[in-house]
Write a structure and sequence with these properties.
Helix content: over 70%
Largest sheet: none
Shape: globular
Radius of gyration: 18 Å
Structural class: mainly alpha
Order of helices and strands: HHHHHHHHHHH
Distance between the termini: 27 Å
Number of strands: 0
Length: 251
């Protein structure tokens, strides 16, 4: 690779993470989907996924602390968070990956259906008395799906959306859920021997700069749009995420 080609690739990677961070800043999710989808044009998927380590983890933590209700959300959501870890580790230990070859595609279809229902204004509601058992159940299933697919959206996101949280609380709750899921998955991978090498971590750390810059721009925009527009953008994001997962490996 010539120096000119290398500089073009670095610029492309920077712009990709800037855009991915912006999407996450606006709707609270979507950084891995946007980044891997675009980076796949210039590098192997495994290399693209490795670059996501630092941007994904740090932007989740920033999102987690971007609102004023951290303690309140932890007290309310701890059953979901604990069982996400349990579900991830138990499933990773017990379920052979080859038995779930099409799990990612099926997850994409489920996300598409949920996105369509959301855009059609069909509201899913979690009654307060049901949180005691629905939270742990959603956590276990989310953890199991995370262990198999590396995606921690279903059913945690529908569950959180069903709690009727306001816009900023919802984004902060997503950050909390995604941070715990990322840590649980990282522990699972480390125990399985899938450790990252120092050069990969260094490149991933550099990708963090444009990702954070894009995220802060997205947050600036989110604070200036209405709750209804945020709802539509949120479900459009889920719809696009579902489409990418459903079509993954089809071409």
């Amino acid at each position: 690779m010539t120096m000119l080609q290398a500089s073009h690739e670095i610029a492309f990677i920077g712009l990709t993470f800037l855009l991915a961070g912006f999407v996450k800043g606006v709707v609270g999710l979507g950084l891995p989907t946007v980044a891997v989808g675009l980076l796949g044009l210039v590098m192997p998927p495994a290399q693209a996924a490795a670059l996501l380590v630092a941007p994904s983890m740090v932007t989740n933590v920033v999102q987690l602390f971007s609102g004023p209700r951290f303690g309140q959300l932890v007290r309310r959501l701890w059953p979901l968070l604990v069982t996400i870890c349990v579900g991830t580790w138990v499933c990773a230990a017990l379920v052979p990956a080859k038995l779930m070859a099409h799990a990612t595609n099926a997850l994409g279809v489920a996300l598409i259906a949920y996105g369509v229902l959301g855009l059609a204004a069909v509201k899913l509601t979690v009654p307060p008395r049901a949180e005691r058992w629905m939270g742990p159940l959603a956590g276990l299933v989310t953890g199991a799906i995370t262990a198999v697919t590396g995606v921690f959206v279903i059913p945690a996101v529908p569950y959180l959306q069903g709690l009727g949280l306001d816009k900023e609380s919802m984004v902060q709750a997503l950050g909390l859920s995604f941070t715990v899921s990322t840590i649980a998955l990282a522990v699972s991978l480390a125990l399985g021997g899938a450790l990252l090498h120092t050069p990969v971590l260094g490149a991933s750390a550099l990708a963090l700069v444009p990702a954070l810059g894009g995220m802060f721009l997205g947050q600036w925009l989110r604070h200036r749009i209405s709750a209804e527009r945020f709802r539509k953008l949120f479900f459009c994001g889920l719809l696009l995420l579902g489409a990418e997962l459903a079509l993954r490996g089809a071409f």
